[in-house]
Write a structure and sequence with these properties.
It contains 7 helices and 4 strands, in the order ααββαβαβααα. The chain is α+β, with helices and mostly antiparallel strands. A two-stranded antiparallel sheet has the order 1-2. A two-stranded parallel ribbon has the order 3-4. A hairpin with a 5-residue loop joins β1 and β2. The longest helix has 14 residues. InterPro entries: KDZ. Pfam families: KDZ (PF18758).
Length: 169
């Protein structure tokens, strides 16, 4: 009889309880963040769901490649990204999208331009590059500001997590 009880206990432990199952599903399928590509006029072109891994540079590379497929080869495109100095260096070092590099210009959004090293500030600040005119590169931040009221509606609905842990009624 003791052997059967041990087997039953191990079997029970191998299944997720309702509480654990809800938490696992929440972590697995919830959005971790979005990356947005906006045009010069701050109109959204594409959203990419970052998924469970968070922000990675390949999302930006995918957006660059997707945008350049839509445009004629003669176009020069300026890209703003928070850590564009690192992305630009890696694109050159590892020959990522080598056919795209000649038609790309890179800059850091003004709000993030004082974070990198001094040399990167000089090289990638939009006001120091005449090709960017007086563009601040903060279109994505303006989009997030507009979406601020929608964010609570995107959270997982259902039983709230504090209630799941509350065993006293």
């Amino acid at each position: 009889m003791a052997v059967i009880n041990d087997v039953i206990d191990r079997c029970k432990d191998s299944y997720l309880g309702d509480k654990d199952y809800h938490i696992k599903i929440t972590k697995e399928f919830s959005d971790k963040g979005l990356i947005v590509l906006v045009c010069r006029h701050d109109c959204v072109l594409w959203f990419i769901n970052m998924g469970p891994n968070g922000e990675k540079q390949y999302f930006m590379l995918a957006m660059m490649q997707r945008l350049l497929r839509e445009l004629p080869e003669s176009f020069t495109v300026g890209f703003f990204y928070n850590v564009i100095c690192a992305l630009h260096r890696e694109m050159e070092q590892w020959q990522l999208l080598p056919h795209c590099l000649p038609c790309l210009k890179f800059s850091t959004p003004v709000f993030h331009s004082y974070g990198p090293q001094w040399l990167c500030q000089l090289s990638y600040h939009p006001y120091k590059n005449p090709k960017f005119s007086h563009t601040d590169g903060e279109g994505c931040e303006r989009e997030w500001n507009l979406l601020n009221g929608v964010i609570p509606m995107c959270r997982i609905s259902g039983v709230s997590l504090p209630l799941l842990y509350n065993t006293e009624y």
